[in-house]
Amino acid sequence: MSAPPIKIALFQCRWCLYSPEDQAWVDNDLPENIHLVKVPCTGRIDPLFILNAVQGGADGVMISGCLPEKCHFKEGNLAARRQLAEFGSFLDYIGYEQARVRFVWLDLQDRGRIQQELTAFETTLETLGPAQALATRASAPMGGADE
Amino acid sequence: MNELETKIRAEAERLLSEGLVDVVIAFRQEDAPLHPQPAFFTQVEELESLTYNGMCANNLANYLTRYPQETRIGMVVRGCENRSVNALIVEKQHTRENLVLIGIPCEGILDWRRIVALTGENVLSVEEKDDSVIVHTRENTFELLRIELLHPSCQRCLHPNPLSADILLGDPKPEGDPHLMRLRIEALENLSLEERNAWFRHEAERCIRCYACREACPMCYCTECFVDHTEPRWTESGVTPAGMQAWHIIRAFHQTGRCTSCGACERACPMDIQMTYLTDKLNLDMADTYQFEVGMDAETQPPFATLTLDDKNRFIAQGK
């Protein structure tokens, strides 16, 4: 009997994937165990979003954004870095492995890197096993606009 | 009545009678000897009931945000309350010109739970004499050591003296030892991941979601709290494990760089849940990473409200 698939929530800044092929892959061909949340900027990501993903049953959360100096909104990602980095270590403090929250900053030449990162992250999560540190919440209706 | 109380009353009377303030926020003795209540004096005649002693457990800065900015407020502040006021001024919740701070170097707040645990519940009066506290109960009289009754947050207090008071009553107290807070947090950090998680779960699972911690906190002034949102519903609102954990995590995290470690949340908690181990950890992180301490002045923005490109070295996943 195989273990249940590892579930990942991917928060993706809509500007961070420079190559259209990468964006098309993320939009259309993501494996089923990866749930995509597209945000206008990493600065939009409230720690509450991450917690909701964690409590919603994700075994890991990946956040992909632009390099600090390349934010579409000048400094949204700087605000995100301060908050989310601290939130990651805060979760670790209360017993949720820091490795389960991963930040990836993508650059112009990082074509195809998002796939590699997701694969690597999934491998990490497989060794860690399913997340159990925090209680799971009852399922809520999925947010966001239907496309 | 103690000497300090007389001084505060005289000061409050002067402020009100000279028309310098519209309201004086202080404490009033009501029926329960262990629980003086926050009081809002607008008339000189009302000042008879003004009290101040070690049992005054609330953080009065909490009431600053309940008045419009134009209201001129006189307020009794201890070290932590002064820092809370500073933090609120940074967040533009009141203007400094409209505040008169009556500063009191604080000897620490007595934990009523410890008193009740040692003397039983029928407490008639509490008297403070230097280093000892004399508690009269219906059956007996106890003489207790003040230092043993201090609330844990006050034992760890760094700055008992008001930093920017307009009027200072009483002699300044020695500053606290910064290692005490650090020792406690480091002890927790040194536990294994599972032990830390067990500790967190043990504290969070007793929560009854009364939000007394929120109501007691001067920095929790949002008109709509994230737990009260219904569309979208950010957290489970019932007394469920996920809901309680989410409340504790996010409540603490919203205090990052804003909490003054006054411990009002813990004193307000009916379930005796520890919460400062969360906020103290965040405060220490802010101090270590950004050399920021909350409320030391009324200008410096908290770290999350400022941003620089120089944080580069704290990248979590570096691009190749």
Structure, described:
The complex is a heterodimer of chains A (147) and B (320). Chain A has one domain. Chain A is of the alpha/beta class. Chain A is globular. In chain A, strands 2-1-3-4 form a four-stranded parallel beta sheet, sandwiched between helices. Chain B is of the alpha/beta class. Chain B folds into two domains: 258 residues, no CATH class; 38 residues, no CATH class. Helices cover 33% and strands 13% of the residues of chain B. Chain B has eleven helices and nine strands. In chain B, strands 1, 2, 3, 4, 5 and 9 form a six-stranded mixed beta sheet that branches. In chain B, strands 6-7-8 form a three-stranded antiparallel beta sheet. Chain B is globular. The interface between A and B is large, with 44 and 47 residues.
Which helices and strands occur, and which strands form pairs?
The complex is a heterodimer of chains A (147) and B (320).
Chain A: E1 8-13, H1 20-28, E2 34-39, H2 47-55, E3 60-66, H3 76-93, E4 101-106, H4 113-128
Parallel strand pairs in A: 1-2, 1-3, 3-4
Chain B: H1 3-17, E1 23-28, E2 37-41, E3 50-51, E4 73-77, H2 79-90, E5 99-103, H3 112-119, E6 123-129, E7 132-137, E8 141-145, H4 146-149, H5 152-155, E9 167-168, H6 178-189, H7 193-204, H8 212-216, H9 241-253, H10 264-268, H11 276-290
Parallel strand pairs in B: 1-4, 4-5, 5-9
Antiparallel strand pairs in B: 1-2, 1-3, 6-7, 7-8
Helix pairs in contact in B: 6-11, 9-11
